[in-house]
Amino acid sequence: MEAYLLDWANLLIRWLHLITGIAWIGASFYFVMLDNALRPPAKAADQQRGVFGELWAVHGGGFYCSQKFLTGPRGEPLTQDLHWSKWEAYTTWLSGMGMLAVVYWIGASSYLIDPQVLALSPTAAIGISVAFLAVGWLVYNALCGLLFGRDGLLAVLVFAFVVLCDWLLHQVFSARGAYIHVGAMLGTMMVANVFFHIIPGQKRMVAQIRAGEAVDPRPGQIGKQRSVHNTYFTLPVLFIMISNHYPMTYAHPRGWLVLVVMMLAGVLIRQFFVLRHRGQLKWWLPAAGAGLLLALIAALAPAPVQTGGTQVPFAEVEAIVAQRCVTCHAARPTQPSFAQAPKGVLLETPAQIAQHAAKLAETVGSGYMPLGNLTHITEPERQRLVRWQAQGARITD
Question: Could you say which of 42, 83, 185, 370 is the most buried, measured as most Cβ atoms within 10 Å of its Cβ?
Answer without folding.
Answer: 185
